[in-house]
């Protein structure tokens, strides 16, 4: 199988990004390596034409910005989200049960629960600690070896297991961590991981946001390796494609990448799409590089366009009746324009036409998705961002199978197609 540098970067990004905090840190590192300058929201900004900058909020959301050489009048915006459904540990996570140390979990977002059983699970996330000198610090940990599992109950003890039995996350999904362990052992494990990974000693863990994750690495699948399988494809694929396009931009136009946290739980947070993060950044940037004042900001936003990227449901060969007969996107058939009459997606005919024209320009096939009229429809950051700031928006995504599973599947060609189209978007001189 020939090596593809883009796919190798993607596989590395997926493997090293088990949480939104890790994904944001990894994107920040790539931006800094490409010459982007980190800004701090608590300090004054000094921006000039041609600057390339980025800023993070909550360490889990990121906005990167390429300013044009002249006056800022329009922006080509790409939106995605850093979070994925899964299992997160409760604050008092340690459970002692029948001589086993287990962990209490919460379900984050609309996760498919059954695939979490019998997996090799690691632990990753953010821990805030008090150091010996009394200062506090937030640090990341990533235990990428199997330290926990959620064992299934044998079919001999549950003969109805294959008949649609409901799963109870409170009573049936506590991971097994340590035999003979007590409650205090989990705190000791956190300290040990902090020492092993961050070199921290004599620290007191004060609070944490920790997730379970599958340690099986992402991989290429299929006789011709035409598929990619891995965790968190929704929506780290979009984060990756947007970042690749931004870094490949020729610098002639104003371009922006926003990757919000908390999309999977409604986006209502300080760093989510329903929060003020993007509006705050746009206001500060426009004040220095655009037409100052409220009217100038409105003109900037209305002259801009946002492509909200979030994966789409590919036609499943075992369940073709789950799609509208005329709207079943094929894996490796090109990016998907997502449409919903009830505004669960933000696409309009105007913004859809722009994307089709971009695909034509890039030589990329394009597909469309509308959910069945008798089924509910998910949503994205697209309509939320459009509602919050008023930017003309469309929703697109790479088609995939098994959305919200612990392991999802997409097509390798679609990733390249979306990057090409987004690169054409950030380089395009006209948006109307």
Automatic annotation (TrEMBL):
Which InterPro entries does UniProt cross-reference here?
Answer: Peptidase_M18, Peptidase_M18_dom2
Tell me the domain of life: Bacteria
Gene3D superfamilies hit by this protein: Aminopeptidase i, Domain 2, Zn peptidases
What Pfam families is this protein classified in? Answer: Peptidase_M18
- Coiled coil (UniProt feature): none
For this UniProt record, the keywords arranged alphabetically read as follows:
Aminopeptidase, Hydrolase, Metal-binding, Metalloprotease, Protease, Zinc
Enzyme type, top EC level:
hydrolase
Enzyme Commission numbers on file: 3.4.11.-
Citing just one GO molecular function, the answer is: aminopeptidase activity
Co-factor(s): Zn(2+)
PANTHER family hit by this protein? ASPARTYL AMINOPEPTIDASE
Q: Which family does it belong to?
A: Belongs to the peptidase M18 family.
Q: What is this protein called?
A: M18 family aminopeptidase
Lineage summary: Bacteria, Pseudomonadati, Pseudomonadota, Gammaproteobacteria, Oceanospirillales
């Amino acid at each position: 199988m020939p090596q593809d540098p883009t796919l190798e970067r993607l596989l590395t990004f997926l493997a090293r990004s088990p949480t939104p905090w890790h994904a944001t840190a990894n994107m920040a590192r790539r931006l800094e390596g490409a010459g982007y300058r980190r800004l701090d929201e608590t300090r004054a900004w000094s921006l000039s034409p041609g600057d390339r900058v980025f800023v993070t909020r909550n360490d889990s959301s990121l906005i990167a910005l390429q300013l044009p050489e002249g006056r800022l009048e329009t922006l080509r915006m790409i939106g995605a989200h850093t979070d994925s459904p899964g299992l997160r540990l409760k604050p008092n996570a340690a459970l002692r049960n029948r001589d086993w140390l287990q962990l209490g979990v919460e379900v984050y977002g609309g996760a498919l629960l059954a695939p979490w059983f019998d997996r090799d699970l690691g632990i990753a996330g953010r821990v805030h600690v008090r150091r010996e000198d009394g200062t506090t610090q937030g640090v990341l940990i990533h235990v990428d070896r199997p330290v926990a599992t959620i064992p299934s109950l044998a079919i001999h003890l549950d003969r109805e297991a294959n008949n649609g039995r409901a799963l109870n996350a409170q009573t049936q999904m506590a991971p097994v961590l340590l035999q003979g362990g007590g409650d205090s052992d989990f705190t000791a494990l956190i300290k040990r991981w902090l020492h092993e990974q961050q070199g921290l000693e004599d620290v007191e863990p004060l609070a944490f946001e920790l997730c379970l994750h599958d340690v099986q690495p992402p991989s290429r699948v299929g006789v011709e390796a035409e598929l990619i399988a891995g965790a968190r494809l929704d929506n780290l694929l979009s984060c990756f494609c947007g970042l690749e396009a931004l870094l490949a931009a020729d610098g002639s136009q104003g371009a922006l990448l926003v990757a919000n946290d908390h999309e999977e739980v409604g986006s209502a947070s300080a760093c989510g799409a329903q929060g003020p993060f993007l509006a705050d950044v746009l206001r500060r940037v426009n004040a220095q590089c655009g037409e100052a004042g409220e009217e100038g900001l409105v003109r900037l936003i209305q002259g801009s366009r946002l492509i909200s990227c979030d994966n789409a449901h590919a036609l499943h060969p075992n369940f073709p009746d789950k799609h509208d007969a005329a709207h079943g996107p094929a894996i490796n058939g090109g990016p998907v324009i997502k449409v919903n009459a009830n505004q669960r997606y933000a696409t309009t005919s105007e913004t859809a036409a722009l994307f089709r024209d971009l695909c034509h320009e890039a030589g990329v096939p394009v597909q469309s998705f509308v959910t069945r009229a008798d089924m509910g429809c998910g949503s994205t950051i697209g309509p939320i961002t459009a509602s919050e700031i008023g930017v003309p928006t469309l929703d697109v995504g790479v088609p995939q199978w098994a959305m919200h599973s612990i392991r999802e599947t997409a097509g390798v060609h679609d990733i390249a197609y979306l990057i090409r189209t987004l690169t054409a978007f950030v380089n395009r001189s006209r948006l109307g």
